[in-house]
């Protein structure tokens, strides 16, 4: 199975690329600029001691079975519209959280949740996951985080595939979060976690259900 | 400091009464029926090996410095209106979550959150906490849960008192959740946790930020 991390040059993309490659998946890093994708793929390959490929976003999407959209929320819907034809054939994972800083971080949902907005464009193989992962810590392989990942989606087969992908990563546990409409509460947890950490003088926080 | 657990005859009330008494607080259990309060106080006293008093809700409220309202959400606002004069002088903790079962559990906020609705009646010494505690497990002293408790409130002094109370309980950690308006997201987590547990075949869940 090929997993493409689309726009995968930031912290979450790095963590996912390296940890999924370590789990045995064939991983592709996509970027608007192929040079950047190649450069990052080289860096990530070195980190995990395995072969991660760097491609343009177009090619990364075409080649993959599962696309993880690690792209900024502001451009997410335009991006998804641009790649509607190719993305709608794939299982698409949205870790995207629309939020703005107004003193603290505030969740700014679009039509219920970002995941649902994307599903309106791409159809029902959209699954949400990874929104609450503290990206910087996750990108650091020396960190051994133990986080829960809530997976929401309306297509049970696609959701099962995504839960398997999550569980393949060491110390992550996938939990079935129910229908895609539940993404709203999962997405809203992210600004809440950021505010909680800064208000209480804690490092970047993830969540664990105990 | 006297802490009254108002309507404290259920699982959350039991867990709080016993664990706060063990932490050294003078604890009173309140109930509509004084006989029930006395019976439960006796039971709880035996569990912790210390003296917990049982009183009518009226007296439990009058005597206390801090009142924890472990009452059903449906009658909560009527209750608070009835005891407005005495409760408005106290620090009041709301662990109350308005929710209904519609297939899964669904959060039914009133005016933003239950905590804010109560504060509209009682003023700004209302603090929300303990909403996400799995009550049955918490009432079992053989359980050694390690949970985070998010504390929200608009009166910083009252919030500091409540955080100290939370932290006095072994293996609970108080986190400053910001203003009372943030209670909405904390309250909404409770039905989400219940659904998550049942959907994934897990025991009653609490939350820990890691």
TrEMBL record, chains A, B:
Top-level taxon of the source organism: Archaea
Claim: Oxidoreductase is one of the keywords in the record: yes
GO biological process, one term: NADPH regeneration
Cellular component aspect of the GO annotation: plasma membrane
Keywords from the named record: Oxidoreductase
InterPro entries per record: NAD(P)-bd_dom_sf, NpdG, P5C_Rdtase_cat_N, STEAP_metalloreductase
Pfam families in the cross-refs: F420_oxidored
Domain Pyrroline-5-carboxylate reductase catalytic N-terminal: 3-97
GO terms assigned for molecular function: coenzyme F420 binding; cupric reductase (NADH) activity; ferric-chelate reductase (NADPH) activity; NADP binding; oxidoreductase activity, acting on NAD(P)H
Protein name (database record): NADPH-dependent F420 reductase
Organism this protein belongs to: Archaeoglobus profundus (strain DSM 5631 / JCM 9629 / NBRC 100127 / Av18)
């Amino acid at each position: 199975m090929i997993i493409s991390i689309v726009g995968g040059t930031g912290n979450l993309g790095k963590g996912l690329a390296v940890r999924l490659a370590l789990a045995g998946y064939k991983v592709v890093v996509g970027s608007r600029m192929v040079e950047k994708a190649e450069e990052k793929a080289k860096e990530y390959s070195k980190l995990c001691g395995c072969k991660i490929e760097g491609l343009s976003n177009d090619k990364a999407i075409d080649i993959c079975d599962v696309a993880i959209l690690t792209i900024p929320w502001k451009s997410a819907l335009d991006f998804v519209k641009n790649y509607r034809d190719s993305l709608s054939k794939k299982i698409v994972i949205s870790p995207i959280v629309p939020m703005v800083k107004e003193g603290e971080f505030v969740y700014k949902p679009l039509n219920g949740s970002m995941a649902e907005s994307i599903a309106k464009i791409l159809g029902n193989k959209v699954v949400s996951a990874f929104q609450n992962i503290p990206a910087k810590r996750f990108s650091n392989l020396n960190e051994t985080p133990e986080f829960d990942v809530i997976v929401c989606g309306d297509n049970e087969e696609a959701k099962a595939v995504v839960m398997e992908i999550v569980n393949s990563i060491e110390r992550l546990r996938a939990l079935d979060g129910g229908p895609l409409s539940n993404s709203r509460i999962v997405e809203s947890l992210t600004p809440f976690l950021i505010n909680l950490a800064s208000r209480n003088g804690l490092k970047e926080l993830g969540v664990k259900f105990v």
